[in-house]
Amino acid sequence: MYGNAYIDPNEKFSSEEETPELLAAFQARIDAGEKIEPQDWMPAMYRKQLIRMIEQHAHSEIIGSLPEGTWITRAPGFRRKLALMAKVQDEVGHAQLLYSAAETLGKSREDMMNDLITGKSKYSNIFNYPALTWADSAVIAWLVDAGAIVNQLANSKGSYGPYCRALERICYEESFHLKYGHDNVVHLATGTKKQREMVQAAMTRWWTPLMHFFGPSDKASVHSDTLMRWKVKMASNDAMRQQFMDMYIPKIWDLGLTLPDPLLKKNTETGLWDYTEPDWEEFKRVINGDGPCNAERLAVRRMAEENGKWVARAINNEEAEHVRPFA
Amino acid sequence: MATEDQTAIESLDPRIGRAHLSGGNHEDMTGLLHFQTYEVFHQNKRGAQHKHVGIVHAPNSDMALLYAKEQFARREQTANIWVAPSSCIAATEYADDDIFTTTPEKLYRNPATYKVMDRIQAFKERGMTPSDEA
Ligand SMILES: [Fe+2]
Ligand SMILES: [Fe+2]
Ligand SMILES: [Fe+2]
Predict the structure, then answer these.
(1) Looking at the partner chain, which of B23, B52, B86 has a beta carbon nearest the beta carbon of A6?
(2) Which of A10, A311, B12, B127 has its CA 20 to 30 Å from the CA of residue B87?
(3) Which of A73, A127, A303, A316 to probe by mutation at the B interface, max B CB count within 10 Å?
(4) A16: which residues sit within 8 A by CB, 6+ positions away?
């Protein structure tokens, strides 16, 4: 019954049985292009998948700001420092928008945060890799954000109102991230021999994680069919990967950079990109905790939460007069 | 609390190195504060309507305003922001949306349904005599 978003996390959701009639009416609403709002009846599976998806997306924003945030103090030049700070602030803001959207489905922000820190929830696997050099941070800002935009633009056409509204704002903000990242990559790629070597090395390092980014092929599953019919998932992983490759491989090659896959080429018959399957065993290993930065990401998040507790306590103190900084 | 799989974190980030963190702690976080939510309304210039843009979590309205500024006034021009506790918003139920579907029947509210020109025309054509004397 609340305006846009908040639903008491302890409130019991309708246990109404998922009759064929209810399911059909729900499907008809989605087919007609209507958005589902928090107050509406929805199948338990729809709710569960959306919580999982939006929550993981929120975690990815907040964890994704760590490998980039690390470069703020070392970004070359004042303008890049300012831009990177703004980008990182945006990403953390995206997380907040998404946590709020997920909360409308009945899981509290605090529970999501706890599940992130204890490792119960996942986030985008790509952030378990380190940004070794400044060039890595450039490649992340350009291509990881590019991948995210492909995904977010697709999802913003989905069926769940609060998620779509959050994504619209997010997509609007992402456009500067992409331009900023591209600018940095171009600067290096058109620079000195050393700069070119740096950006080539970063591109080579990030190619496998970028190919992993959209997840393993999922076209064959019944599960993903249902999610697509409900407009929870808007495109198959392969379709999004192809779209990403179509948009960005030409731009990478245009800079005289190479990608570490000899099979990579656009197939003129199928109109799709041929490529070597990335190592999906590595993907599984890393997503299940054994990547180069998993432990660090969670430990840093835990530290931030623990060290920030006193701030939360201070602003929560009704008696205090001098802790409210709005002026 | 130390558990067996805790390991010292070696980070590329010198600040994280200095924090001497260890990994492998999967214990629940306790004492995470449950702040209430505030609905945020944004006005881009004086005279414009405030528009609902989203929500923030905050312990009080001052903090809600601060968070709203950070969250919803980073890009576009802002003249003013309102916040209101979400719990203060009353809303209709989508399930009852048929209460709003009466408009098409109420043609008398539509200016285009008031057609007097035909009548004036006929009146003039018959020499402007009253209708019961023509
Ligand atoms: Fe983002
Ligand atoms: Fe990003
Ligand atoms: Fe971004």
Answers:
(1) B86
(2) A311
(3) A316
(4) A22, A41
Instruction: Using DSSP, state whether B36 is helix, strand or coil.
Output: strand
pLDDT in tens, B20-63: 998 888 899 877 778 899 999 999 999 999 999 999 999 999 89
Count of domains in chain A? 1
For chain B, the structural domain boundaries read 34-88
For residue A20, the distance in angstroms to the closest alpha carbon of chain B comes to: 18
User: Does A3 lie at the interface with B, CB-CB under 8 angstroms?
Assistant: yes
The residue-averaged pLDDT of B75-80 equals 92
CA distance A223 to chain B (A): 29
A300 touching chain B per CB within 8 A: yes
In this structure, what CATH number is given to the domain that contains residue A120?
Answer: 1.20.1260.10
The residue segments making up the domain with residue A143 are 27-215+233-306
Q: How far is the CA of A136 from the centre of ligand 3 (A)?
A: 15
Each residue's pLDDT tens digit, A90-122: 999 999 999 999 999 999 999 999 999 999 999
Closest A-chain CA to B74: A90
Averaged over B67-81, what is the pLDDT? 93
Q: Distance, CA B8 to ligand 1 centroid (Å)?
A: 30
Domain contains A192:
yes
CB A68 within 8 A of CB A141: yes
Q: Which CATH number fits the domain B34-88, given the four candidates 3.40.50.620, 3.10.20.520, 2.60.40.10, 1.10.10.10?
A: 3.10.20.520
DSSP per-residue string spanning A226-269: HHHHTTSS-S-HHHHHHHHHHHHHHHHHHTT---S-TT-EE-TT
Q: Return the structure tokens found at B68.
A: 């709203």
- pTM for the model: 0.89
pLDDT tier at A9, thresholds 50, 70, 90: very low
Buried b (16+ CB within 10 A) or exposed e, A38-73: bebbbeeebbebbbbbbbbbbbbbbbbbbbbbbbbe
Q: What is the pLDDT of residues A263-295, one digit of tens each?
A: 999 999 999 999 999 999 999 999 988 999 999
